[in-house]
Records
---
Amino acid sequence: MITTNDIFHSLNQKMRFIIKEANEKLNEFDLYTSQWAILYCLDQFGPMKQTEIWKYLNVEAPTTTRTLTKMESNNWIERAEGEDKRERIVCLTDYAKSKLPEIKASIQEMEESLLQNLSNEDQEQFMTLLNKIGSEKEVVTHG
Amino acid sequence: MITTNDIFHSLNQKMRFIIKEANEKLNEFDLYTSQWAILYCLDQFGPMKQTEIWKYLNVEAPTTTRTLTKMESNNWIERAEGEDKRERIVCLTDYAKSKLPEIKASIQEMEESLLQNLSNEDQEQFMTLLNKIGSEKEVVTHG
DNA sequence: TGATTTTATTTACCTAGGTAAATAATGTGC
DNA sequence: GCACATTATTTACCTAGGTAAATAAAATCA
Protein backbone atom coordinates (compact mmCIF):
# COMPACT_ATOMS: atom_id res chain seq x y z
CA MET A 1 0.00 0.00 0.00
CA ILE A 2 1.24 3.46 -0.84
CA THR A 3 0.61 6.08 1.81
CA THR A 4 1.41 9.75 2.21
CA ASN A 5 4.30 8.70 4.47
CA ASP A 6 6.25 7.94 1.33
CA ILE A 7 6.57 11.63 0.59
CA PHE A 8 8.41 12.38 3.82
CA HIS A 9 10.48 9.22 3.67
CA SER A 10 11.46 9.97 0.06
CA LEU A 11 12.19 13.61 0.81
CA ASN A 12 14.45 12.64 3.66
CA GLN A 13 16.34 10.08 1.60
CA LYS A 14 16.73 12.43 -1.34
CA MET A 15 18.09 15.16 0.88
CA ARG A 16 20.62 12.82 2.46
CA PHE A 17 21.66 11.65 -1.01
CA ILE A 18 22.18 15.24 -2.16
CA ILE A 19 24.22 16.14 0.93
CA LYS A 20 26.36 13.05 0.45
CA GLU A 21 27.00 13.94 -3.20
CA ALA A 22 27.87 17.51 -2.29
CA ASN A 23 30.22 16.44 0.49
CA GLU A 24 32.03 14.16 -1.95
CA LYS A 25 32.44 17.07 -4.37
CA LEU A 26 33.59 19.38 -1.57
CA ASN A 27 36.02 16.83 -0.17
CA GLU A 28 38.59 17.95 -2.75
CA PHE A 29 38.62 21.37 -1.05
CA ASP A 30 38.54 19.98 2.49
CA LEU A 31 35.05 21.48 2.89
CA TYR A 32 31.61 20.29 4.00
CA THR A 33 28.12 21.40 2.98
CA SER A 34 27.53 23.51 6.09
CA GLN A 35 30.80 25.34 5.51
CA TRP A 36 29.98 25.81 1.84
CA ALA A 37 26.63 27.36 2.79
CA ILE A 38 28.44 29.99 4.84
CA LEU A 39 31.05 30.66 2.13
CA TYR A 40 28.18 31.13 -0.34
CA CYS A 41 26.52 33.62 1.99
CA LEU A 42 29.65 35.68 2.48
CA ASP A 43 30.39 35.64 -1.24
CA GLN A 44 26.88 36.91 -2.01
CA PHE A 45 26.44 39.46 0.76
CA GLY A 46 29.97 40.40 1.89
CA PRO A 47 30.97 40.55 5.58
CA MET A 48 28.12 39.53 7.88
CA LYS A 49 27.41 39.43 11.59
CA GLN A 50 27.06 35.90 12.91
CA THR A 51 23.41 36.56 13.69
CA GLU A 52 22.79 37.59 10.10
CA ILE A 53 24.32 34.33 8.91
CA TRP A 54 22.27 31.96 11.03
CA LYS A 55 19.07 33.91 10.46
CA TYR A 56 19.63 33.78 6.70
CA LEU A 57 20.47 30.07 6.72
CA ASN A 58 17.62 29.42 9.15
CA VAL A 59 19.73 27.40 11.58
CA GLU A 60 20.39 27.97 15.26
CA ALA A 61 23.21 30.15 16.60
CA PRO A 62 25.22 27.35 18.25
CA THR A 63 25.32 25.39 14.99
CA THR A 64 26.82 28.41 13.26
CA THR A 65 29.30 29.05 16.07
CA ARG A 66 30.66 25.53 15.71
CA THR A 67 30.96 25.68 11.93
CA LEU A 68 32.61 29.11 12.00
CA THR A 69 35.15 28.02 14.60
CA LYS A 70 36.15 25.16 12.32
CA MET A 71 36.27 27.44 9.27
CA GLU A 72 38.41 29.96 11.11
CA SER A 73 40.95 27.33 12.09
CA ASN A 74 40.98 26.14 8.47
CA ASN A 75 41.63 29.68 7.21
CA TRP A 76 38.36 30.11 5.30
CA ILE A 77 37.03 33.03 7.38
CA GLU A 78 38.10 35.66 9.88
CA ARG A 79 36.06 37.11 12.73
CA ALA A 80 36.46 40.76 13.71
CA GLU A 81 34.98 42.54 16.71
CA GLY A 82 32.12 44.87 15.77
CA GLU A 83 31.31 48.34 17.11
CA ASP A 84 28.85 46.56 19.34
CA LYS A 85 31.32 44.46 21.25
CA ARG A 86 28.90 41.55 21.52
CA GLU A 87 28.95 41.09 17.77
CA ARG A 88 31.50 39.30 15.66
CA ILE A 89 31.73 40.21 12.01
CA VAL A 90 32.64 37.38 9.68
CA CYS A 91 34.51 37.86 6.39
CA LEU A 92 36.24 35.69 3.83
CA THR A 93 40.02 35.27 3.92
CA ASP A 94 42.11 35.94 0.82
CA TYR A 95 42.57 32.19 0.60
CA ALA A 96 38.80 31.66 0.49
CA LYS A 97 38.39 34.37 -2.13
CA SER A 98 41.06 32.78 -4.30
CA LYS A 99 39.47 29.32 -4.07
CA LEU A 100 35.85 30.34 -4.48
CA PRO A 101 35.61 30.38 -8.29
CA GLU A 102 36.80 26.79 -8.50
CA ILE A 103 34.49 25.65 -5.69
CA LYS A 104 31.49 27.43 -7.18
CA ALA A 105 32.13 25.82 -10.56
CA SER A 106 32.36 22.41 -8.95
CA ILE A 107 29.10 22.86 -7.04
CA GLN A 108 27.29 24.23 -10.06
CA GLU A 109 28.38 21.24 -12.12
CA MET A 110 26.96 18.94 -9.47
CA GLU A 111 23.69 20.85 -9.20
CA GLU A 112 23.20 20.83 -12.95
CA SER A 113 23.89 17.12 -13.02
CA LEU A 114 21.33 16.45 -10.30
CA LEU A 115 18.73 18.51 -12.13
CA GLN A 116 19.53 17.31 -15.66
CA ASN A 117 16.19 15.56 -16.04
CA LEU A 118 14.09 18.50 -14.90
CA SER A 119 13.08 21.23 -17.31
CA ASN A 120 12.81 24.81 -16.10
CA GLU A 121 9.08 24.29 -15.91
CA ASP A 122 9.60 21.12 -13.85
CA GLN A 123 11.81 23.04 -11.44
CA GLU A 124 9.27 25.83 -11.02
CA GLN A 125 6.51 23.29 -10.51
CA PHE A 126 8.64 21.48 -7.94
CA MET A 127 9.31 24.67 -5.99
CA THR A 128 5.60 25.53 -6.02
CA LEU A 129 4.65 22.14 -4.63
CA LEU A 130 7.49 22.13 -2.10
CA ASN A 131 6.32 25.49 -0.78
CA LYS A 132 2.85 24.06 -0.24
CA ILE A 133 4.16 21.47 2.21
CA GLY A 134 3.69 22.70 5.75
CA SER A 135 2.16 25.98 4.61
CA GLU A 136 -0.81 27.59 6.33
CA LYS A 137 -4.25 26.41 5.32
CA GLU A 138 -5.16 27.97 1.99
CA VAL A 139 -8.16 30.26 2.15
CA VAL A 140 -10.81 29.50 -0.42
CA THR A 141 -11.99 32.72 -2.01
CA HIS A 142 -15.67 32.99 -2.78
CA GLY A 143 -17.15 34.66 -5.85
CA MET B 1 18.79 36.61 -9.00
CA ILE B 2 17.13 33.24 -8.66
CA THR B 3 19.34 30.26 -9.32
CA THR B 4 18.92 26.51 -9.24
CA ASN B 5 20.66 26.58 -5.85
CA ASP B 6 17.38 27.61 -4.36
CA ILE B 7 15.97 24.15 -4.94
CA PHE B 8 18.56 22.44 -2.77
CA HIS B 9 18.53 25.18 -0.15
CA SER B 10 14.73 25.03 0.03
CA LEU B 11 14.67 21.24 0.10
CA ASN B 12 17.13 21.22 2.96
CA GLN B 13 15.20 23.79 4.97
CA LYS B 14 11.88 22.06 4.37
CA MET B 15 13.26 18.73 5.50
CA ARG B 16 14.66 20.23 8.70
CA PHE B 17 11.32 21.89 9.35
CA ILE B 18 9.49 18.59 8.92
CA ILE B 19 11.90 16.74 11.22
CA LYS B 20 11.52 19.45 13.85
CA GLU B 21 7.73 19.24 13.67
CA ALA B 22 7.84 15.45 13.90
CA ASN B 23 10.20 15.52 16.87
CA GLU B 24 7.87 17.91 18.68
CA LYS B 25 4.96 15.53 18.06
CA LEU B 26 7.03 12.55 19.17
CA ASN B 27 8.32 14.30 22.27
CA GLU B 28 5.11 13.30 24.07
CA PHE B 29 6.17 9.65 23.69
CA ASP B 30 9.83 10.27 24.48
CA LEU B 31 10.68 9.34 20.88
CA TYR B 32 12.66 10.84 17.99
CA THR B 33 12.19 10.58 14.24
CA SER B 34 14.94 8.01 13.74
CA GLN B 35 13.40 5.82 16.42
CA TRP B 36 9.96 6.25 14.93
CA ALA B 37 11.28 5.14 11.52
CA ILE B 38 12.43 1.87 13.07
CA LEU B 39 9.18 1.35 14.99
CA TYR B 40 7.32 1.89 11.73
CA CYS B 41 9.48 -0.72 9.98
CA LEU B 42 8.95 -3.34 12.67
CA ASP B 43 5.23 -2.65 12.76
CA GLN B 44 4.98 -3.12 8.99
CA PHE B 45 7.29 -6.09 8.51
CA GLY B 46 7.51 -7.83 11.89
CA PRO B 47 10.84 -8.89 13.45
CA MET B 48 13.82 -7.90 11.29
CA LYS B 49 17.54 -8.45 11.25
CA GLN B 50 19.50 -5.26 11.87
CA THR B 51 20.88 -5.43 8.34
CA GLU B 52 17.35 -5.56 6.93
CA ILE B 53 16.46 -2.45 8.88
CA TRP B 54 19.33 -0.24 7.75
CA LYS B 55 19.09 -1.47 4.16
CA TYR B 56 15.38 -0.65 4.11
CA LEU B 57 15.86 2.77 5.69
CA ASN B 58 18.90 3.38 3.49
CA VAL B 59 21.15 4.47 6.34
CA GLU B 60 24.47 3.04 7.48
CA ALA B 61 24.82 0.18 9.96
CA PRO B 62 26.48 2.20 12.75
CA THR B 63 23.66 4.75 12.70
CA THR B 64 21.16 1.93 13.24
CA THR B 65 23.26 0.32 15.97
CA ARG B 66 23.24 3.55 17.95
CA THR B 67 19.51 4.14 17.57
CA LEU B 68 18.64 0.52 18.46
CA THR B 69 20.83 0.62 21.57
CA LYS B 70 18.91 3.66 22.76
CA MET B 71 15.56 2.09 21.88
CA GLU B 72 16.46 -1.10 23.73
CA SER B 73 17.34 0.80 26.89
CA ASN B 74 14.04 2.69 26.57
CA ASN B 75 12.09 -0.59 26.25
CA TRP B 76 10.85 -0.05 22.69
CA ILE B 77 12.61 -3.06 21.14
CA GLU B 78 14.37 -6.30 22.05
CA ARG B 79 17.28 -7.93 20.25
CA ALA B 80 17.53 -11.72 20.04
CA GLU B 81 20.41 -13.79 18.73
CA GLY B 82 19.71 -15.37 15.33
CA GLU B 83 20.61 -18.83 14.03
CA ASP B 84 23.55 -17.13 12.41
CA LYS B 85 25.22 -15.94 15.57
CA ARG B 86 26.48 -12.76 13.93
CA GLU B 87 22.93 -11.59 13.42
CA ARG B 88 20.67 -9.86 15.90
CA ILE B 89 16.94 -10.02 15.31
CA VAL B 90 14.99 -6.97 16.40
CA CYS B 91 11.38 -7.07 17.55
CA LEU B 92 8.92 -4.74 19.27
CA THR B 93 8.28 -5.01 23.00
CA ASP B 94 4.75 -5.36 24.34
CA TYR B 95 5.10 -1.79 25.53
CA ALA B 96 5.86 -0.61 21.99
CA LYS B 97 2.95 -2.61 20.59
CA SER B 98 0.59 -1.09 23.14
CA LYS B 99 1.74 2.46 22.36
CA LEU B 100 1.91 2.18 18.58
CA PRO B 101 -1.74 2.97 17.71
CA GLU B 102 -1.57 6.27 19.56
CA ILE B 103 1.80 7.18 18.04
CA LYS B 104 0.66 6.28 14.53
CA ALA B 105 -2.44 8.43 14.91
CA SER B 106 -0.35 11.35 16.09
CA ILE B 107 2.08 11.08 13.19
CA GLN B 108 -0.70 10.67 10.66
CA GLU B 109 -2.39 13.79 11.98
CA MET B 110 0.85 15.71 11.53
CA GLU B 111 1.44 14.38 8.03
CA GLU B 112 -2.07 15.26 6.93
CA SER B 113 -1.64 18.73 8.34
CA LEU B 114 1.62 19.24 6.47
CA LEU B 115 0.02 18.07 3.23
CA GLN B 116 -3.33 19.82 3.66
CA ASN B 117 -2.71 22.17 0.74
CA LEU B 118 -1.68 19.44 -1.70
CA SER B 119 -4.28 17.50 -3.66
CA ASN B 120 -3.67 13.83 -4.46
CA GLU B 121 -2.63 14.95 -7.91
CA ASP B 122 -0.20 17.49 -6.40
CA GLN B 123 1.33 14.76 -4.27
CA GLU B 124 1.79 12.41 -7.22
CA GLN B 125 3.29 15.22 -9.26
CA PHE B 126 5.62 16.06 -6.41
CA MET B 127 6.83 12.48 -6.11
CA THR B 128 7.41 12.29 -9.86
CA LEU B 129 9.53 15.44 -9.84
CA LEU B 130 11.38 14.43 -6.67
CA ASN B 131 12.32 11.12 -8.27
CA LYS B 132 13.79 12.98 -11.23
CA ILE B 133 16.32 14.75 -9.01
CA GLY B 134 19.61 12.89 -9.15
CA SER B 135 18.26 10.23 -11.51
CA GLU B 136 20.26 8.85 -14.42
CA LYS B 137 20.20 10.77 -17.66
CA GLU B 138 16.92 10.13 -19.40
CA VAL B 139 17.29 8.41 -22.76
CA VAL B 140 15.47 10.15 -25.58
CA THR B 141 13.64 7.58 -27.69
CA HIS B 142 13.63 8.13 -31.41
CA GLY B 143 10.70 7.42 -33.75
C1' DT C 1 22.51 56.29 37.91
C1' DG C 2 21.57 51.65 38.88
C1' DA C 3 18.52 47.60 38.34
C1' DT C 4 16.48 44.98 34.84
C1' DT C 5 15.79 43.26 30.32
C1' DT C 6 17.32 42.21 25.88
C1' DT C 7 20.65 40.61 22.55
C1' DA C 8 24.94 38.16 20.59
C1' DT C 9 27.62 34.58 21.31
C1' DT C 10 29.30 30.56 23.46
C1' DT C 11 29.32 26.14 26.13
C1' DA C 12 27.48 21.73 27.26
C1' DC C 13 24.97 18.08 25.77
C1' DC C 14 21.43 15.52 23.00
C1' DT C 15 19.98 13.09 18.43
C1' DA C 16 21.50 11.70 13.85
C1' DG C 17 23.91 11.30 9.66
C1' DG C 18 28.56 9.73 7.76
C1' DT C 19 33.45 6.89 7.29
C1' DA C 20 37.18 3.76 8.78
C1' DA C 21 38.58 0.12 11.26
C1' DA C 22 37.97 -3.74 14.72
C1' DT C 23 35.68 -8.08 15.99
C1' DA C 24 33.45 -12.29 15.51
C1' DA C 25 30.91 -15.67 12.97
C1' DT C 26 30.20 -17.72 8.49
C1' DG C 27 31.36 -19.21 3.84
C1' DT C 28 34.83 -20.68 0.26
C1' DG C 29 38.59 -22.86 -2.03
C1' DC C 30 42.73 -25.53 -2.04
C1' DG D 1 41.10 -28.99 7.69
C1' DC D 2 42.89 -24.57 7.27
C1' DA D 3 43.89 -20.12 5.13
C1' DC D 4 41.35 -16.53 3.26
C1' DA D 5 37.38 -13.79 2.07
C1' DT D 6 32.87 -12.24 3.26
C1' DT D 7 29.28 -10.65 6.29
C1' DA D 8 26.97 -8.65 10.62
C1' DT D 9 27.73 -5.82 14.06
C1' DT D 10 30.15 -2.67 16.87
C1' DT D 11 33.47 1.06 18.25
C1' DA D 12 35.68 5.38 17.57
C1' DC D 13 35.39 9.63 15.66
C1' DC D 14 33.85 13.26 12.31
C1' DT D 15 30.16 16.77 10.66
C1' DA D 16 25.68 18.80 11.66
C1' DG D 17 21.22 19.66 13.37
C1' DG D 18 18.71 20.76 17.88
C1' DT D 19 17.77 22.76 23.08
C1' DA D 20 19.00 24.84 27.57
C1' DA D 21 21.73 27.59 30.09
C1' DA D 22 25.84 30.71 30.87
C1' DT D 23 28.23 35.01 29.80
C1' DA D 24 28.97 39.58 28.47
C1' DA D 25 27.70 43.80 26.26
C1' DA D 26 23.98 46.98 25.13
C1' DA D 27 19.51 48.95 25.78
C1' DT D 28 15.69 50.33 28.70
C1' DC D 29 13.54 52.42 32.34
C1' DA D 30 12.23 53.82 36.97
---
Amino acid sequence: MKDSKARKGDSAVSKKEVKKASKNEEKEVKRKKLTSVKVQKPNKRPNRKERKAKKDPNQPKRPPTPFFVFLEEFRKTYKEEHPNVKGVAAVGKAGGDKWKGLTDAEKAPYIAKASQRKIDYDKSMAAYKQKQDDEEGSAEESDKSNLEINDEEESEDEEEDEDD
DNA sequence: ATGGTGATTGTTCAC
DNA sequence: GTGAACAATCACCAT
Protein backbone atom coordinates (compact mmCIF):
# COMPACT_ATOMS: atom_id res chain seq x y z
CA MET A 1 0.00 0.00 0.00
CA LYS A 2 1.49 3.17 -1.04
CA ASP A 3 -1.44 5.09 0.25
CA SER A 4 0.56 5.68 3.36
CA LYS A 5 2.58 8.22 1.52
CA ALA A 6 -0.51 9.76 0.14
CA ARG A 7 -0.05 13.11 1.72
CA LYS A 8 3.39 14.02 2.70
CA GLY A 9 2.90 17.49 1.52
CA ASP A 10 1.20 18.16 4.75
CA SER A 11 4.49 18.56 6.42
CA ALA A 12 7.49 16.72 5.34
CA VAL A 13 9.23 16.30 8.59
CA SER A 14 6.15 15.37 10.45
CA LYS A 15 6.14 12.14 8.53
CA LYS A 16 9.23 11.03 10.27
CA GLU A 17 7.79 12.00 13.53
CA VAL A 18 4.83 9.83 12.90
CA LYS A 19 7.10 6.98 12.07
CA LYS A 20 9.02 7.46 15.23
CA ALA A 21 5.79 7.61 17.10
CA SER A 22 5.12 4.05 16.08
CA LYS A 23 8.52 2.97 17.16
CA ASN A 24 8.03 4.92 20.26
CA GLU A 25 5.72 2.26 21.50
CA GLU A 26 8.33 -0.35 21.10
CA LYS A 27 11.13 1.75 22.36
CA GLU A 28 9.01 2.94 25.16
CA VAL A 29 9.59 -0.31 26.93
CA LYS A 30 13.31 -0.08 26.89
CA ARG A 31 13.20 3.60 27.32
CA LYS A 32 11.40 3.23 30.56
CA LYS A 33 14.13 1.08 31.87
CA LEU A 34 16.77 3.59 31.18
CA THR A 35 15.34 6.63 32.45
CA SER A 36 13.84 7.87 35.14
CA VAL A 37 15.38 11.12 34.95
CA LYS A 38 14.13 13.23 32.24
CA VAL A 39 17.03 15.01 30.77
CA GLN A 40 16.34 18.59 30.25
CA LYS A 41 16.85 19.33 26.65
CA PRO A 42 18.03 22.89 26.44
CA ASN A 43 18.45 22.72 22.76
CA LYS A 44 18.99 19.65 20.80
CA ARG A 45 21.22 19.53 17.80
CA PRO A 46 20.22 21.72 14.91
CA ASN A 47 17.49 20.39 12.73
CA ARG A 48 18.73 18.07 10.10
CA LYS A 49 17.23 20.37 7.57
CA GLU A 50 19.43 23.05 8.89
CA ARG A 51 22.36 20.74 8.50
CA LYS A 52 21.63 20.31 4.86
CA ALA A 53 21.23 24.00 4.55
CA LYS A 54 24.82 24.36 5.49
CA LYS A 55 25.67 21.55 3.16
CA ASP A 56 29.21 21.43 4.28
CA PRO A 57 31.04 19.30 1.83
CA ASN A 58 33.82 19.02 4.28
CA GLN A 59 31.78 17.79 7.11
CA PRO A 60 32.28 14.05 7.30
CA LYS A 61 29.13 12.08 7.68
CA ARG A 62 28.85 9.67 10.51
CA PRO A 63 30.40 6.32 9.91
CA PRO A 64 27.99 3.53 9.07
CA THR A 65 26.95 1.40 11.96
CA PRO A 66 27.74 -2.31 11.87
CA PHE A 67 24.18 -2.84 10.95
CA PHE A 68 24.53 -0.52 8.01
CA VAL A 69 27.67 -2.26 6.87
CA PHE A 70 25.84 -5.51 6.97
CA LEU A 71 22.86 -3.87 5.38
CA GLU A 72 24.86 -2.67 2.42
CA GLU A 73 25.80 -6.19 1.60
CA PHE A 74 22.43 -7.51 2.49
CA ARG A 75 20.79 -5.06 0.13
CA LYS A 76 22.59 -6.53 -2.84
CA THR A 77 21.54 -10.02 -1.95
CA TYR A 78 18.05 -8.97 -1.18
CA LYS A 79 17.64 -7.15 -4.45
CA GLU A 80 18.83 -10.17 -6.34
CA GLU A 81 16.26 -12.32 -4.70
CA HIS A 82 13.67 -9.61 -4.83
CA PRO A 83 14.40 -7.51 -7.87
CA ASN A 84 10.80 -6.52 -8.02
CA VAL A 85 10.83 -5.16 -4.55
CA LYS A 86 11.32 -1.50 -4.73
CA GLY A 87 11.56 0.48 -1.61
CA VAL A 88 14.04 0.80 1.14
CA ALA A 89 11.62 -0.15 3.82
CA ALA A 90 11.38 -3.72 2.63
CA VAL A 91 15.09 -4.24 2.72
CA GLY A 92 15.32 -2.41 5.99
CA LYS A 93 12.88 -4.69 7.68
CA ALA A 94 14.32 -7.79 6.15
CA GLY A 95 17.82 -6.70 7.03
CA GLY A 96 16.89 -5.82 10.55
CA ASP A 97 15.24 -9.14 11.02
CA LYS A 98 18.20 -11.06 9.78
CA TRP A 99 20.59 -8.88 11.68
CA LYS A 100 18.97 -9.92 14.90
CA GLY A 101 19.37 -13.48 13.82
CA LEU A 102 23.09 -13.09 13.48
CA THR A 103 25.32 -13.90 16.37
CA ASP A 104 28.05 -11.72 17.71
CA ALA A 105 30.56 -13.84 15.88
CA GLU A 106 28.79 -13.19 12.62
CA LYS A 107 28.41 -9.56 13.40
CA ALA A 108 32.01 -9.36 14.47
CA PRO A 109 33.40 -8.73 10.98
CA TYR A 110 30.83 -6.04 10.40
CA ILE A 111 31.58 -4.46 13.72
CA ALA A 112 35.25 -4.60 13.00
CA LYS A 113 34.75 -2.85 9.74
CA ALA A 114 32.49 -0.30 11.32
CA SER A 115 35.10 0.35 13.96
CA GLN A 116 37.69 0.97 11.34
CA ARG A 117 35.27 3.22 9.58
CA LYS A 118 35.01 5.25 12.72
CA ILE A 119 38.76 5.63 12.83
CA ASP A 120 38.71 7.07 9.40
CA TYR A 121 35.85 9.24 10.47
CA ASP A 122 37.90 10.55 13.34
CA LYS A 123 40.59 11.60 10.94
CA SER A 124 38.14 13.28 8.65
CA MET A 125 36.52 14.96 11.58
CA ALA A 126 39.83 16.22 12.87
CA ALA A 127 40.68 17.62 9.48
CA TYR A 128 37.23 19.07 9.19
CA LYS A 129 37.40 20.81 12.51
CA GLN A 130 40.85 21.99 11.75
CA LYS A 131 39.67 23.48 8.54
CA GLN A 132 36.81 25.14 10.28
CA ASP A 133 39.20 26.65 12.75
CA ASP A 134 41.50 27.62 9.98
CA GLU A 135 38.80 29.44 8.12
CA GLU A 136 37.85 31.38 11.14
CA GLY A 137 41.42 32.08 12.06
CA SER A 138 42.24 33.35 8.64
CA ALA A 139 38.89 34.87 8.02
CA GLU A 140 40.44 38.13 7.16
CA GLU A 141 42.99 36.32 5.15
CA SER A 142 42.20 36.92 1.54
CA ASP A 143 44.95 34.84 0.10
CA LYS A 144 43.73 31.52 1.26
CA SER A 145 45.59 30.08 -1.65
CA ASN A 146 48.46 30.13 0.73
CA LEU A 147 47.72 26.78 2.14
CA GLU A 148 45.45 24.04 1.02
CA ILE A 149 44.51 21.22 3.20
CA ASN A 150 45.16 17.94 1.55
CA ASP A 151 41.97 16.07 1.73
CA GLU A 152 43.68 13.13 0.24
CA GLU A 153 46.27 11.47 2.28
CA GLU A 154 45.63 7.87 1.73
CA SER A 155 47.58 5.28 3.50
CA GLU A 156 47.23 2.21 1.45
CA ASP A 157 48.47 -0.08 4.11
CA GLU A 158 45.06 -1.38 4.82
CA GLU A 159 45.16 -5.06 4.98
CA GLU A 160 43.02 -7.08 7.17
CA ASP A 161 44.32 -10.48 7.94
CA GLU A 162 42.25 -12.23 10.40
CA ASP A 163 43.74 -15.47 11.43
CA ASP A 164 41.97 -17.24 14.13
C1' DA B 1 13.24 18.95 -11.48
C1' DT B 2 14.19 18.19 -6.88
C1' DG B 3 13.84 16.56 -2.55
C1' DG B 4 11.67 14.37 1.00
C1' DT B 5 9.94 9.94 2.84
C1' DG B 6 9.79 5.24 4.27
C1' DA B 7 12.31 1.23 7.57
C1' DT B 8 16.03 -0.97 9.82
C1' DT B 9 19.57 -0.53 14.09
C1' DG B 10 23.73 1.26 15.77
C1' DT B 11 26.61 4.96 16.61
C1' DT B 12 27.61 9.52 17.59
C1' DC B 13 27.01 14.00 19.48
C1' DA B 14 25.57 17.30 22.78
C1' DC B 15 23.97 18.81 27.26
C1' DG C 1 24.28 9.39 31.65
C1' DT C 2 20.56 9.84 28.56
C1' DG C 3 17.96 11.50 24.84
C1' DA C 4 17.52 12.36 20.23
C1' DA C 5 18.84 12.59 15.64
C1' DC C 6 21.20 10.84 11.95
C1' DA C 7 23.91 7.30 8.89
C1' DA C 8 22.47 4.53 3.38
C1' DT C 9 19.40 3.15 0.00
C1' DC C 10 15.88 3.59 -4.15
C1' DA C 11 11.82 4.45 -6.18
C1' DC C 12 8.03 7.42 -6.09
C1' DC C 13 4.95 11.51 -5.21
C1' DA C 14 4.12 16.24 -4.22
C1' DT C 15 5.31 20.92 -4.69
